[in-house]
Amino acid sequence: MEKKITNYDIRELFVSIKVKALMTKPVPTVYETDDLSDVEEIFIDQHASHVCIIDSSHKLTGIISQKYLYKIRSPQKILPGRIMETNKDIIIDGDSFYDRKTLNGYILKDLMDKIPDYLHPDHTLKDAITLMSRLGSSCVPIVDEKCKVKGLLKESHIVKMLAGLFD
Questions:
Q1: Across residues 100-105, what is the average pLDDT?
Q2: Domain count, the chain
Q3: From residue 127, how far is each of 29, 62, 118 by CA, in Å?
Q4: What Gene3D superfamilies would the database entry show (predicted)?
Q5: Residues 78-90: what's their mean pLDDT?
């Protein structure tokens, strides 16, 4: 007979799990002064959904999501019969593309979510869920005491962990 999970069990679980056990590492990062095209290439090449932005001392100063980039500047569809792979000014994203010069016309530091809320590796899953719910965010950066990026915790990490409880 299966044990029924009680409200108390769930609370105990969420306060017993540290975010360092679920976070992704290493995290894709760029400097505030980098080009927006560098960020898009990370989204494509590393299949990342978020990129953390750091300053010259490697401290977290912002974050940007692929979803937000799409809102700022949607890619253009590749028309049938058009050959684009050889053009270095084009960044291919599936069946769409970005013009590198257009992306680089934006200033990353102005677009990023500046000084995002973050957690430390020893914060609990309860802390993460509470923060993400309050912010309406799908992820939260994890930093050390010097605000250097150590990981990234996403909703999908939490869902996968919860799904594992049913196995």
A1: 91
A2: 1
A3: 24, 20, 10
A4: CBS-domain (3.10.580.10)
A5: 71
